[in-house]
Structure formats: structure tokens, C-alpha cells
């Protein structure tokens, strides 16, 4: 690969994480969530690597169409459902399950005259207050769905946890209790747990779990890394040194002279920047891996380059590889330093970064 800035995606690690999730899930089926370009890892290659998942979930119909066009035949679930007649017809043509969370979506199904039938995942809002029917609407909505020719008999009942990453959350306990009360006595499979739920709330695992971030080896729980949870990082974001220069004590480096040398230094320039998805607001001292050694970022991140202090590593040469995150430097740690979450870091890797898949 000729590109200097590249993301390496390890599909063996991906399947290790899937096996780990199965082990934790008490026999639940796994709906692998690969929306948003598989959290930045590549929608189609990740889908093909996850052939052992029980089903795949995406947010939008365009993602489902792309998967079918690439030959992915697994069960597909549209987490946001569909929003107009054209999308409904595409969902039928591409054999998608539908999440139904609004009266408008119910009306679309009621007016659908085709012979196609959908498996519906009926979403109940138990406290996220984003999508879903309120508990007091559930019985009437369920009756409407079960009267429709376009809806198969086998429903899945679902909700989404707002605070599953908080290990002592009364909110999560309340959501679980409300979901159980609302759906009591209804014969249907259930799906509650996202990544944080399946790792932290065993009572949320039900018949289907919906891991997203955990599949990629990243912890959804603040203060923990994926490695501590038995997961392996799937992505390594790396680049190379393209220049090394001497900077005298008192001289500054980069835009805004945001860092000045306190001694004579050896500064390395690496081919990555915010144009590649490496956050501009990562500050001086942010770790970068040179081999197994941590070296500090110095100066501001620019669009195409960063600068690092190589003074204590005289062996470093132009062409040497650097790791921005991956094994040995968790993306969770970088996200905390950037004041964001790992989801945003992974999804933020831009299209000009070359991607290599290890199989």
C-alpha cells in the first residue's frame, strides 16, 4: 500500500469480539450493528467478515441497499425504519426487517398494497425520549400491527437504554422495569441491550442483543478499555514520519506557536491531521506510538500533519511507522484527551485515509 496514512482493520479481532459477545450474552442472538460505515471500519467488508452474526443492523435504507448490492444475504434490520413509500418499497425489494416507532410508519404499512411482508421490530420508548411509542400506546399499536397483512406474525419488541454505561443507574433500572411491565404477557422475542447493556446489565440481554461499539473492540463504559473487557481493537490508525528537523531551545513549532522547546529538540513531522480525522484539539503531550514507545505530540494538529518530539529517540528515522490509536494505545484514551467519545473518533476517520483489511 502506497498511502502513508492508513487504517488497518483486523477482521480476526472483529470475530474474536463477536465470540466474546456471544459468550457474555447467555445464548441471546446477536444483531450486529454496523451503521455509519460500520463505525468507520467499512460497511461491506465488515458485514462480510461478520457472517456468523445472526443478523446485521443499519440505520438507513441506503446502507441496506449497498449491502444487498454487494451480495450480503444475511438478515438486515433497519434501526430507524422507513419514512416514505419509496423507502418502504426498497425495504421490501431488499428483504429488510423494519423497526416501527411512529404512527406515520404504521400508516405506511397500512397503505402498502404489495404482497411483500415484513418482520417488524416494535420500538417502545421507556425513557430515551427519542424514538418509539409510549408505553400507554403499546396495546393499541400492537393490535394495529397484528391486523396488517404486510406484517408477519413474529414480532420483536424492543427498547433502547439511555444510561446503560452508568453502572448504578436508577434510570436503567426504571427503563427495564417499565419495558417488562409494558410487554408482560405478550409472546414475542425481545431486544434491549446495546453494547453497554450486554456488558453491564445482564437482565437486559433478552433474546437479542445489539452490540455496536463492542464489536470493534472498544469499551462503551467510561474508565474501561476494550482490552479490560476481553475485547481486541479492530482498527489501527497509523502513519509515517515524513521529516525530522532540529529545533533549538526557545523556538516554537506549528500554528500559533502553541508549543515552544525547553531544550534543543529533535522534532518529527508525520503525515496525518484533522483532514484525516485526527482531532485538531488534541493537545501537547498527547501520546503517539513509535514502535512500543510513547512519544508526545507537540504543537497544533494541522490539516495534513502533526509534529512529535523525538528527542529521546535518536534511532527514529524518516519512514518509521507511528500508531495514533490501536493495540497499545486505546482509542478510548485518545477520545478522553480530545474531550469526545470513541464513537466520534472512529466515525470521523475520513475518506482519504487508505483502509487495509487483515483477514
Overall CATH class of the largest domain: Alpha Beta
Strand content: 15-25%
* CATH architecture heading of the largest domain: Alpha-Beta Barrel
Stretches where pLDDT is under 50 for at least 5 consecutive residues are none
- Helix proportion: 25-40%
Radius of gyration: 23 Å
CATH superfamily of the largest domain: Alanine racemase
> What multimeric state do the chains show?
single chain
| CATH fold field value of the largest domain | TIM Barrel
Query: How many runs of DSSP E, i.e. beta strands?
Result: 18
**What is the overall silhouette?**
elongated
Order of helices and strands: EHEHHEHEHEHEHEHEHEEEEEEEEEHHE
Mean pLDDT: 97
Distance between the termini: 16 Å
Structure annotation, total helices: 11
What structural class results from the helix and strand content?
A: alpha/beta
Strand order of the largest sheet: 8-7-6-5-4-3-2-9
What are the key terms here?
TIM Barrel, Lyase, Ornithine Decarboxylase, Chain A, domain 1, 6-stranded antiparallel beta barrel, 11 helices, elongated, 359 residues
Amino acid at each position: 500500500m502506497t498511502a502513508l496514512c492508513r487504517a488497518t482493520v483486523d477482521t480476526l479481532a472483529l470475530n474474536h469480539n463477536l465470540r466474546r459477545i456471544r459468550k457474555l450474552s447467555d445464548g441471546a442472538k446477536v444483531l450486529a450493528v454496523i451503521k455509519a460505515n460500520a463505525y468507520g471500519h467499512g460497511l461491506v467488508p465488515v458485514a462480510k467478515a461478520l457472517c456468523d452474526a445472526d443478523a446485521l443492523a443499519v440505520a438507513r435504507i441506503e446502507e441496506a441497499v449497498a449491502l444487498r448490492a454487494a451480495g450480503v444475504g444475511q438478515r438486515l434490520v433497519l434501526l430507524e425504519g422507513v419514512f416514505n413509500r419509496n423507502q418502504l418499497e426498497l425495504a421490501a425489494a431488499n428483504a429488510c426487517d423494519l423497526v416501527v416507532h411512529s404512527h406515520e410508519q404504521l400508516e405506511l404499512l397500512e397503505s402498502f398494497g404489495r404482497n411483500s411482508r415484513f418482520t417488524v421490530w416494535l420500538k417502545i420508548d421507556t425513557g430515551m425520549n427519542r424514538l418509539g411509542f409510549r408505553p400507554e400506546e403499546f396495546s393499541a399499536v400492537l393490535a394495529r400491527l397484528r391486523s396488517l397483512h404486510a406484517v408477519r406474525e413474529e414480532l420483536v419488541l424492543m427498547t433502547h437504554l439511555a444510561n446503560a454505561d452508568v453502572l448504578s443507574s436508577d434510570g436503567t433500572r426504571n427503563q427495564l422495569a417499565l419495558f417488562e411491565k409494558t410487554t408482560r404477557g405478550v409472546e414475542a422475542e425481545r431486544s434491549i441491550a446495546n453494547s453497554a447493556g450486554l456488558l453491564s446489565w445482564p437482565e437486559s440481554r433478552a433474546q437479542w442483543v445489539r452490540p455496536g461499539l463492542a464489536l470493534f473492540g472498544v469499551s462503551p463504559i467510561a474508565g474501561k478499555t476494550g482490552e479490560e473487557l476481553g475485547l481486541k481493537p479492530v482498527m489501527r490508525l497509523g502513519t509515517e514520519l515524513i521529516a525530522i528537523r532540529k529545533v533549538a531551545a526557545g523556538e516554537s513549532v506549528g500554528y500559533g506557536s502553541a508549543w515552544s522547546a525547553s531544550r534543543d529538540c529533535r522534532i518529527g513531522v508525520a503525515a496525518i491531521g484533522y483532514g484525516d480525522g485526527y482531532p485538531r484539539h488534541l493537545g501537547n503531550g498527547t501520546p503517539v506510538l513509535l514502535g512500543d514507545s510513547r512519544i508526545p505530540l507537540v504543537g497544533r494538529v494541522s490539516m495534513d500533519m502533526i509534529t512529535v518530539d523525538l528527542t529521546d529517540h535518536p534511532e527514529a528515522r524518516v519512514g518509521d511507522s507511528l500508531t495514533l490509536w490501536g493495540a497499545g494505545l486505546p482509542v478510548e484514551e485518545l477520545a478522553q484527551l480530545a474531550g469526545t467519545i470513541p464513537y466520534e473518533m472512529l466515525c470521523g476517520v475520513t475518506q482519504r485515509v487508505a483502509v487495509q483489511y487483515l483477514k
